[in-house]
Amino acid sequence: MRTRTFMSALIALLVVAGPAAALEGESFVVTQDQAKLLRIAAPAATVIIGNPAIADATMQDSQTLVITGRSSGTTNLIILDEAGEPVAEKLISVQGPVENNISVYKGTTRFSFNCSPNCQPNVVPGDNPEFFGNITAQNSTRTGVAAGNAAPVQ
Fold first, then answer.
1. Pair 19, 89: CB distance under 8 Å
2. Burial of 65 (C-beta count, 10 Å sphere; 0-12/13-18/19+)
3. Cα(90)–Cα(67) distance, integer angstroms
4. Could you give the C-alpha distances from 83 to 46, 57, 77, 79, in angstroms and in order?
5. How far apart (Å, rounded) are the C-alpha atoms in residues 96 and 119?
6. Of 4, 44, 7, which Cα lies nearest the Cα of 23?
7. Rounded Cα gap, residues 2 and 16, in angstroms
8. Which tens digit of pLDDT belongs to each residue from 105-136?
C-alpha cells in the first residue's frame, strides 16, 4: 500500500510540475563526433547550449533535437518555449570515442589511433601537437578534395 501511495504521489508531481521537471537531473550522454536524438515533451522555440565547444544542438522539429558531441566534457542544455519559459534543462555529457580506439604513449607524449579494422591516425585533444596538427591538416585537405574545393596534392 505504501509503494502505491508513493507512486501515485510521484506521478501527480510529474503531471503538475510539467515536462521540465520530468527531464531535470537526467544526464544525456553522447559520444564525441557522433549525433544522438533527444525528444522533448513540449514544443521548443529556443535551444541554449552552455558550451558549444563541447556539444551542439540542432532542432529537427519543435520536439526533436539532434545533439552532436564536439569534445569530451560536460555542459548544460536549456530549452525554452515561445513565451521564453523553460521546457527542460539537461546536462549533456560528451564522452571520448571508446570503441576501436587506442592510445600510444612515447614518454609523456600521446598519439591516438582508430583501429576499425586497420589502425589509422585519429585526432584527439591532448595528443602530440605536431601529430594532431598534421592529421587535422590532412583531414581538412581530404574533405576539401571530396567537396571539390581543393585540388589534390601531386
1. no
2. buried
3. 12
4. 10, 20, 18, 11
5. 17
6. 44
7. 21
8. 999 999 999 898 899 998 888 899 999 999 98
